[in-house]
Design brief:
- This protein is mostly helical.
- It has a single domain, classed as Growth Hormone, Chain: A.
- It is built from eight helices and no strands.
- It is globular, with a radius of gyration of 20 Å.
- The chain starts with a helix and ends in an 18-residue tail after the last helix.
Length: 222
Amino acid sequence: AVLVYSLFWFLGGVVQMGINTLGEAALRLSRTRTSVLVAGIGLGIALGCLLAGFAGRGSRRWTVIGAWLLVTTLAAAALLGSGLCGTPASAGRDLRTETIVSSLFVCDLVEWLLRVDMTILGIAAGLFVVPVQVYLQAAPPAELKGRVLGVQNLMTWIGILLSAAFSLVVGLTLKAIAGPAADKQHQWVLFALLAAMMLPVAVFYRLPALADDSEPTTEVPR
């Protein structure tokens, strides 16, 4: 569970850097339009955490649902960012002729799909991480909770640091294969790799049951 929690922060670090490059460099969106994509992720995470925490009461099934949604939305981001579905009509638009209102609401289908996808990606992240966090706080014995939370914090920062290294390695590899500007033009590859990375987690990982989730037993007095 600690490793899976660290993976969440790893994904968050990579996506945070990747979506800015995907929006501004690959799709040639303005900074305002790219910021809307990032804001969609943040809004989605808040909604996902609320859904998992209140509607689902931290149920373990949300981790599986969130993992599959992460795979789907990351793959969709790769598809939309690759240009196979077309280029946003606002690509390369002169900022001097565009107002903030038009940046927020005047979009073509490709850009709207990307915004919706980023919001669902955030929801998936919230659904995925809340049950894991609940488990890490509730599962350890009282005498080990401090150690577990300490290891969790350490692994969180390791995941964040590895996200920067991963983005750098992918960028250098793309440059070596397809030219000096390939790391920006083919930023969609980053999201495809993240989707592939999450697939085994969605297929195989199941959060263990807490002791409180088991059926109560009644001892027969002797």
